[in-house]
Amino acid sequence: MTARLPALPSEPLADEIAEVAQRLRLAERYRELDRVPEFPRAEFRALGEARLLGLHVAPALGGRGLLLPRVAATLFHLAYRGGTVFAKLSLQPEFSSIIAEHGSPELVHRYFRPLVRGEVLVANQLTEPDAGADAGAIALRLERSGEEYVLHGTKSEAAFAQDADAAIVYGRVGDGPGLTALVVPQDLPGIRRTVIPDLGERWMRRGTVSYEATRVPVSMRIGEEGRAFDYVRPELTRERALLAAIYLGVARASWEETVRYADERSVFGGPLARNEAVSFPLVEDWAGAEASYLYALRTLERFEAGERVEAEAALAKWMSTEIALRTIDHAIQFHGGRGYSETLAHGQRWRDVRSGPIAHGPSEVLHLVAARRIWKAPRERV
Ligand SMILES: Cc1cc2nc3c(=O)[nH]c(=O)nc-3n(C[C@H](O)[C@H](O)[C@H](O)COP(=O)(O)OP(=O)(O)OC[C@H]3O[C@@H](n4cnc5c(N)ncnc54)[C@H](O)[C@@H]3O)c2cc1C
């Protein structure tokens, strides 16, 4: 039996990505970063030089200015070749795009442009020990003192807790309902960072960042006081649909390896693939991935056309993570004992993708977002 693999999403940058992946040894680095967790600064810089950071960012700001469906296809290819690491790094400028959209020219110059070049790592700190899925409970205090804010509070679960050069920190000025965002250099007095051991995506060195009377100039504020959540909401919607492409790209790598293995591996006198208990789940995974990818693309097209697609983006992320995790689980299963070992990449991919149903909105909360669209309950704060 010889497997005929369906084509990857067509994307003009696909060959360029394959070349970059080979030159930077992205597949090997992906495995190494699991064993020796560190922020891959050299690769981050190299991706910036290859103009693979900020694919959606306008060319005037150093990005490629690609339309969102092409960004999704490019992320898919990056994830297929280098796991979640390099695809998520590619999205890092989009995660910080409120600086470009609402920040001062000075903030754009000092932080956003260097981020797109891979020179400065800007993290996002929203979650707190008592405010995760419910971002409305964020309590970090920003006390105004002359031309400075004084920060008191703790951010938790934050990616790049150890390595970020700066972070977009969300907090509250006074008792008002809205959140305010500041760009906070992470080497200021009063900042303490602690890393937690993670199940996957260890290169992110997630952790807790506490602010004890940390003084930040008012000029570091992004936009107006109390408006930060309005700024970040559309960004979250876009990212959820783009993340779907990343999870599906990672799963595709495991799926292909399993389809090939099912050809090569002989059990009970014939190829593994001859058993329908193996081939049927694999074709279901193929269908699920195609459908989920097309749904994410459609959602991104509609987002770009100016439609409200919070519900669809929420469902795209939920669906893609379910399908990706199931696909990778099948890869582990059908590779038998080797599948369960760390000699193959499936375990690492599963651990990495397992963050998907939690980060950027837990799946249960994404269901709430979608259900509210149907039953037209008043908008709340998810
Ligand atoms: C790999 C990774 C990277 C992350 N990076 C960042 C980052 O860079 N910056 C940042 O700010 N945060 C980051 N996070 C944090 C992430 O956004 C939060 O973990 C997430 O929002 C959930 O918040 P929580 O952990 O406080 O869980 P909680 O809010 O305590 O929720 C716990 C669980 O309860 C369930 N749940 C919650 N609300 C509801 C509900 N209304 N109905 C039903 N079930 C519900 C869900 O299963 C949820 O997972 C990251 C997380 C991970 C795993």
Describe the structure.
The protein is an alpha+beta fold. The chain folds into three domains: 14-102, Butyryl-Coa Dehydrogenase, subunit A, domain 1 (Orthogonal Bundle); 122-226, Butyryl-CoA Dehydrogenase, subunit A, domain 2; 229-375, Butyryl-CoA Dehydrogenase, subunit A, domain 3. 50% of the residues lie in helices and 14% in strands. It is built from twelve helices and ten strands. The protein has helices at 14-23, 26-35, 41-49, 68-95, 97-102, 105-116, 228-264, 276-304, 310-334, 336-339, 346-353, 363-375; strands at residues 122-125, 141-145, 148-158, 166-171, 180-185, 191-195, 207-217, 221-222, 266-267, 270-271. A four-stranded mixed sheet has the order 1-4-5-8. Flavin-adenine dinucleotide (FAD) binds next to strand 1, strand 3 and helix 12.
Q: Secondary structure elements and their pairing?
A:
Blueprint: H1 14-23, H2 26-35, H3 41-49, H4 68-95, H5 97-102, H6 105-116, E1 122-125, E2 141-145, E3 148-158, E4 166-171, E5 180-185, E6 191-195, E7 207-217, E8 221-222, H7 228-264, E9 266-267, E10 270-271, H8 276-304, H9 310-334, H10 336-339, H11 346-353, H12 363-375
Parallel strand pairs: 1-4
Antiparallel strand pairs: 2-3, 3-7, 4-5, 5-8, 6-7, 9-10
Helix pairs in contact: 1-4, 2-4, 4-7, 7-8, 7-9, 8-9, 9-11, 9-12
The structure holds flavin-adenine dinucleotide (FAD).
Residues 123-127, 132-134, 157-159, 201, 206, 355, 358-359, 362, 364-365, 368 line the site of flavin-adenine dinucleotide.
